[in-house]
Amino acid sequence: MKNKRGRARLSRVPLVLSVIAALLGGFALSTGAEAAIGGGGGWKPRPSYGLKGVDKASLSGSSTNDLKAWVAARLANDRKRRAHTLTITPAKAPATTTVKSASVQSLAAAAGPSALVLYDNTGPYGYLGELYAMAIANLSGHFGTVTSKPVSAYTAGMVEQYSATVYVGSTYYGGTIPDAIPAAFYQDALKTSKPIDWIGDNIWNMANAVGIETFKQKYGWDPTNSYFDNGGGVGNITQVAYKNQTLTRKIPTGYDGGVLHPAISGGTYPQVTTLATATDANTGATSPWAIRTGNLTYVGEIPFTYVSESDRVIVFEDLLFDALAPATAERHRAFVRLEDISPKSDPTELRAMADYLASQNIPYGINVIPVYTDPKGVYNNGKAETISLAQAPQVVSALKYMLQHGAVLMNHGYTHQYSNVNNPYTGVTGDDFEFFRAHVDASDNVIYDGPPAEDNAVWAQSRVTSALAAFTAAGFPKPTLWTTPHYAASATDYKVFGQNYTARLERSLYFAGTLSGGTVNPARYIGQFFPYSVKDVYGTTVLPENIGNYEPVPYNNHPARLPADLIASAKANLAVRDGVASFFYHPYYAVDPLKQTIDGIKALGYTFVGPTALAQ
């Protein structure tokens, strides 16, 4: 799975770890961690680079660059609005012509509630609105049918056609950018009894449109007197408290657009409920992060960038239940999969994992790469080597043993590498991307370069077909679940995977153009992971992987993740009322760290289930 960094022969492991520790500021392994890397002499890919969205911003490189300018423009408008110098031009009356169907996307999920997702798409960074809307649409796809469209396409009465409406305000209207929100939406949002979730910008424009006093009389606060920057900057909000969990918020200077400070009216006005509370690390000051009055829930920032496994986005992931499935009972399940198993894996290690998990009555997934290849002989003394499952009878026997002891077979690519080039590391199975190009820059960051030049549906299908044939040749049934190597592929590829498998179990990339029906832009995308199963914007069921993996050494500017880190992320995800703590583990590590992780997650009250149960 995920990008790799530094496969070493066992005899050199302590030296390699010492060098890494020195280079990265004195990092030292926890007691027993060095021993955990031991085991047999089988194939051991590089340490995993779990997809953190795409980079630390959860966006593509070009989008991350735009994010900084977007934040600066928003805060400039916020300061002008606070100084009463921001001119806002209302939206023009809607034309009588119908909106092109390409601008609207409906995603059919299992029978259930329906969600309307509205987003901004104007201004120099309008495409960010579509990226954020995809994140919301994906999460809403857990509950039922989702319809997504630009807010400018809204027509009167539309909110009444859905169980709930979510609007994400990403374009701070004012100055040269006129308000694109139709007056009908402001009025309907005020009048409806259906849930309205409003995220980010432009709530003040609604108050102005319906009347400030009218807004205050219904909702108990004044958005026109609420700002992200109250005059001393946006502060340094690093924590959000929600449902007895302290969630993280880690945004670098210059990329932080702040959290809106709502001006609560008090007195005889309706009471405002604070759902989540933000804390400034510099001053200790607290302020609401999300509030609710009646049917209106307001979230003070767009929480889909700079996310982590214990991030404040968890609040929004849970709040959607209030809007779309309020009767949902509390339930906490966990899942573990064993990762990067190939024809070069050590059968003894595989059987040891199977024996431990069976002894605990834990069902699990096994992510298998059916063909191992080292086209340049990087790990074979310069001689090219390719081995299929059918040519590795001891591995096949071990895998069948695992299937008899609670495992579910999953397909993890065809070769988990690309061509005969470094992509980004060695060109060897398990080390590299298969469906995306990447390189490591001078600062030791993995940079996503985009789909391969030959990427198309036929090419992706040919690799899937070859993978399935390799399983058949080794005597295995067809896997029904897929995990993309290093989680990265094009929109076209993801759709191909969805046509061949019941579900994907992974984090994913979502590309601009997908919702609008326009040309998909491979350079603009958002990465996302989920705390529950969803029907995503590609039309595929995606099962969750949301707490990462055990990795005892830091790599590519990512810190080590030890059992305590995975357990802490699982604890944070208890805030999701029907959520999953899903992680993966490499069987070339010793059993003990896996045991520590599973014991810790169980102690939190989670019940381990198999992968097929995650869709229920």
Question: What would the keywords be for this entry?
Answer:
616 residues; alpha/beta; 10-stranded mixed beta sheet; 5-stranded parallel beta sheet; 14 helices; 27 strands; 26% helix; elongated
Short summary:
Residues 1-35 form the signal peptide. This is DUF2334 domain-containing protein. By secondary structure, the protein is of the alpha/beta class.
Q: What's the shape? A: elongated
The SS-based structural class is alpha/beta
The percentage of residues in β strands lies in 15-25%
The number of helical elements comes to 14
Distance between the termini: 25 Å
User: For the largest beta sheet, what order do the strands appear in spatially?
Assistant: 1-3-2-4-5-12-11-10-7-8
Rg calculated over all Cα atoms = 25 Å
Mean pLDDT across every amino acid position: 90
Helical content band: 25-40%
Low-confidence residue ranges: 2-41, 96-103
Query: What does the main sheet amount to?
Result: 10 strands, mixed
Number of β-strand runs: 27
Organism: Streptomyces abikoensis
Keywords: Signal
Signal peptide: 1-35
Pfam families: DUF2334 (PF10096)
